Amino acid sequence: MLRIPAFLFALALSAITAFAAADDPGPGGAYKTDPSHSSFNWSFNHSGLSHYTARFTRVDARLDWKPERPETSALSVTIDPLSVRTDYPWPDKVDFDAEIGGDKTFLAAKPITFVSRAIQITGEKTGTVEGLLTFRGETHPATLDVTFNGSMAKHPMMGVPKIGFSARGSIKRSEWGLDFAIPELGDEVTFAIETQMVPADYAFQ
């Protein structure tokens, strides 16, 4: 008799439940980042040899979601610059994360924020979010290319509505006064965001 391990059965059941839940979309309203299912990675050209890649681990996004008219939604994001993680291999010698996040030559320990000003729908599940990006105390326009991945009225594991997005974008860091080592280190910084969001009043355990 074929025996299916319990964890595989649970995984299959979860997938079936999630598929069914996807047919029942999540409602509009106020949402926030689910940090356990979100990531913010950034990279730039390094000496023409590779794209140096790092991430932020404390990102708080707030979305006033209007599924019937997504272009009327509103997004705001706050990032802690001291949450940068570079995976520098010798932290006992140099606290490279603290240097990148806090040194005045780099992010200067100043909050990073993005506030949307306009949302344009470009496809069935795609759009652009134009807004104002602030870091190092300077504010300039920036644009995100966003894909709406879907929503659920009730997530099978968390039991609350969830929505999910992917986003891509790029900036010229020199426009914010961060011109260290250009052109050896690329001026263009690209970023990739993956996020799931939960109702703004959800209490994480």
Provide structural commentary:
- By secondary structure, the protein is mainly β.
- It has a single domain, classed as Beta Barrel (Lipocalin), CATH 2.40.128.
- The chain has helices at 6-22, 96-102, and strands spanning 29-33, 39-46, 50-56, 59-65, 74-79, 84-85, 112-121, 126-135, 138-152, 162-172, 185-199.
- It has an 8-stranded antiparallel barrel with strand order 1-4-5-7-8-9-10-11.
- The longest helix is centred in the N-terminal third of the chain and has 17 residues, at 6-22.
- Residues 7-22 have low confidence and may be disordered.
- Residues 30-198 form the Lipid/polyisoprenoid-binding YceI-like domain.
What's the topology here?
Layout: H1 6-22, E1 29-33, E2 39-46, E3 50-56, E4 59-65, E5 74-79, E6 84-85, H2 96-102, E7 112-121, E8 126-135, E9 138-152, E10 162-172, E11 185-199
Antiparallel strand pairs: 1-4, 1-11, 2-3, 2-11, 3-6, 4-5, 5-7, 7-8, 8-9, 9-10, 10-11
What features would you highlight for this structure?
single chain, 205 residues, mainly beta, Lipocalin, 8-stranded antiparallel barrel, 11 strands, 12% helix
Question: Briefly, what CATH class?
Answer: Mainly Beta
**CATH architecture assignment name:** Beta Barrel
What are the secondary-structure elements, in order, as H or E? Answer: HEEEEEEHEEEEE
Termini separation comes to 40 Å
Overall structural domain count? 1
Shape field? globular
- The number of helical elements comes to 2
Helix/sheet category: mainly beta
Low-confidence stretches: 7-22
Q: Based on DSSP secondary structure assignment, what is the total number of beta strands?
A: 11
Look at the structure and name the CATH superfamily.
Answer: Lipid/polyisoprenoid-binding, YceI-like
Instruction: Sketch the major β-sheet.
Output: 8 strands, antiparallel, barrel
Which fold does the CATH topology refer to? Lipocalin
Radius of gyration: 19 Å
- Give the % helix: 10-25%
**Order of adjacent strands in the largest pleated sheet:** 1-4-5-7-8-9-10-11
* Percent of residues in β-strands: over 45%
